[in-house]
Amino acid sequence: MSKRFYITTAIDYVNGQPHLGHAYEKIVADVIARARRSMGQEVFFLTGLDEHGQKVEQVAASQGKQPQAYCDELAQTWKAFAAKLNLTNDDFVRTTEPRHKQVVQAGLASVNAAGKVCKRSYEGFYSTKEETFLTDKDRRPDGTFDPAWGQVVEIKEDNYFFKLQEQQQWLIEHIEKNPSFVCPDSRRNEVLGFLKNNTLEDLCISRPTARLSWGIPLPFDPEYVTYVWFDALVNYISIPAAHGDESALPAPHIPRSTPGAARLSLWPADIHVIGKDIVKFHAVYWPIMLKAMGLPLPKQILVHGWWQKDGQKISKSTGNVVDPVAVIDEWGVDAFRFYVLRELDIGPDGNWTDAGFKARYSAELANGLGNLVNRSLSMLKRYRDGVVPPRHDDLATFAAQTSRTTEALILGNRLQAALIEIWMLVTRANQYVDQTAPFKLAKDPAQAKRLDEVLYTLAETCRVLAVLLWPFLPGTAAKIYSQLGLTDAPDKFSKSTWGVLTPGHRIGAPAPLFPRRDA
Ligand code: MSP
Description:
Shape: elongated
Bound molecules: 5'-O-[(L-methionyl)-sulphamoyl]adenosine
Mean pLDDT: 95
Number of helices: 17
Largest sheet: 7 strands, parallel
Structural class: alpha/beta
Oligomer: single chain
């Protein structure tokens, strides 16, 4: 059993509607998952929902619902959202599932047995909204707490703490020795700066049931439930464990996967895709938790930036939102996937504008790719009755170079750069149509051979493009293949080699991929 390429996303808080930021992260992970599969790797792509905690408990209560019933309802919306984005996730975790809860408890038992947990009294400030303890360091210069923390209350209670002292040095060394552990570099530097300039305070990993009951009970004290982050992070190993991956098990005694179920080898994760706000949890707490549980660390934490809309924070309360479902219903899922991937590189912050979306749709999708495929196939239909002429290699070298570079960029998670590279081939092929002017060649019987050459070159370029685009725009890639009359899928990167279309093959019916819209 060989280890699969294992990629995860952050699991979204169930309370709330899926928005642009959630969509972007899941699409980034999906493109990487699809691309790796296309390149022949076995992949496991995990996404899902974070369902415990005070906020969920409170919202459910305000709606007169039991928290589980409330989560069950919302989980349907989120699963439908994943399908709407055309994600190829292999599993969908919900932290309220027994298969997850038992691994969280095993993890807690394991760190407790390792002597990493202590109980002590805490007296101080607590943000109910963020479910986190605050100290004087979190105060603003005027002594008040930022309103982003919501209501801040003073509490005194006994809690369990995960000891973090003496953990800094090895983690600093690990990050320094493994330059791709946190990517991009700006985030890596941020984590290193944090670790070098601060003393880690022990992490409170419990909440008394008297204050919060919607959580996973601590295995060593039923009067407490697990702090949401200790619960949520464990999803990355609980699902491998549920699929029988022994290397994801924190303790030897928890039940194995369902008898007879296939056993997968997944852990350690190859990539955790997350947003910039949760870097500390993933690059500091999570590695320390794993080490305490005796498990290997993930290979990479890939951090993306945050989207704004029209230069302002996305916020439901101010109405400054992008509804991915509405955009997809109007423009199609591939147009949405294209815009977010092409507009924003993985790392910096991005800005959605409706005008920018429409401009890219029109220039790059409708007039760029769509026009190329439509005119190439329509001319082949018109001038050669849809029958592929003998092979010709006019753009073969250019296409081969595009494939090689695209492959390298994808393997380096440079998805925006890969799209830019692929569009150089789109642009080159559109220029080629203008330069060779097949519509003029068609009028001159003496140019029949040249017309054959041009038509083959264009049809084959469209085919290669479909293969390169498959991870990004799977529906569009499939449509190109189908319009070319091909019955297989463009889902193997090896098919991007020039010369796969065979002379004499009859193509299907051309149809616009991205209909032009009036502005
Ligand atoms: N439940 C935690 C994650 C636990 S992972 C073990 C959480 N959930 S969240 O719903 O608030 O955020 C989920 C992901 O969406 C995070 O990676 C977050 O950075 C990302 N985004 C939320 N808003 C975003 C934008 N405006 N832009 C881009 N991504 C953003 O945090």
